[in-house]
Every structure is written in C-alpha cells, then in structure tokens.
Amino acid sequence: MAYEFQIAVDSPEPHKLADWWAETLGWRLEPQDEGFIKEMIAKGFASDDDTLRHNGALVWRAGQAIRHPDDLPGAPRVLFQYVPEAKTVKNRLHLDLRLGGEDQAAVRDRLVARGATYLWSGNQGPQTWLTMADPEGNEFCIS
Q1: What is the C-alpha to C-alpha distance for residues 31 and 35, in angstroms, rounded to an integer?
Q2: What is the pLDDT averaged over residues 74-96?
Q3: Which of 10, 53, 93, 103 is the most buried (most CB within 10 A)?
Q4: How far apart are CA 22 and CA 29, in angstroms?
C-alpha cells in the first residue's frame, strides 16, 4: 500500500516560517478555525497558552501548515511545528524547488531579498542548482 505523507519542519517561529514558504512556493496557508480553537479552550481541551495571535488571527501555537493552492489529491502538505531551539546542524532532508525555466539567478536574488541566504552552486553534467537556506537556516535547492 502506498502512503500519503506530509513534510514536517521544526521551527522556533513556525507561523513566520510558514508565511515565508507559502509566499516562496506560491502555496497557501492552511486555514485555522478560530471558533474551533475558542471552543477547545472553553471545553478545557486547550488553554490560552496553546494559542497566539498571528497576523491578527487566533492560531494554535504548535504550528502552521501550507498546501498547494489547487489542493491536488495526494499533494504533500508542509507542517511547520514549534520547537524551542533553533536549527544547529545541516539538514538530512531538504526541498528541491524546480523553477520550470525561470532564471536561477533572478530567483536567488528575489529569495535573498526576502531573507534567504545563498550558500553555493552545484552541477552534475548539464544540471545546475543553487543551494540556499531559508530565514531559519534550513537548506533547500533551486534548479
């Protein structure tokens, strides 16, 4: 049996990082239901400490997910989940963004202007890629 999956990214500021990645990928934030959150607090299943306000909305402190804008069946979801510590070592898993013919240097410059860091270039035969890091230091490649 084949499984569907999501990608989970640890982050000390998951809502800010989800915003950054949603804009980078052209994806959308998964909505959080403020009424449901308030109901869970009222029923004692959660507390105010489990929530925060982000961009004016009440959200779960634990994290934020993003999705492909077309809700493609089987498309992975990316969940940014709260952890108290910052990233300290190189990723063992990273995203490779396929640019579909867009100019790598232009995309690199646009991402750097938004808080990414350019790390290095690589190539294998005719394939080239740029390795970058998001604002929290998580590596990813653009090709």
Answers
A1: 12
A2: 92
A3: 10
A4: 6
CB 51 within 8 A of CB 57: no
Whole-number mean pLDDT of the chain?
95
Alpha-carbon span 87 to 13, nearest angstrom: 11
Interatomic CA distance for residues 40 and 47, integer angstroms: 8
Of 9-13, 86-90, 105-109, the one with minimum mean pLDDT is: 86-90
| Distance, CA of 3 to CA of 89 (rounded, Å) | 29
Query: How many C-beta atoms surround the C-beta of residue 59 within 10 A?
Result: 21
For residue 41 the two structure tokens come to 């607090």
* pTM for the full predicted model: 0.93
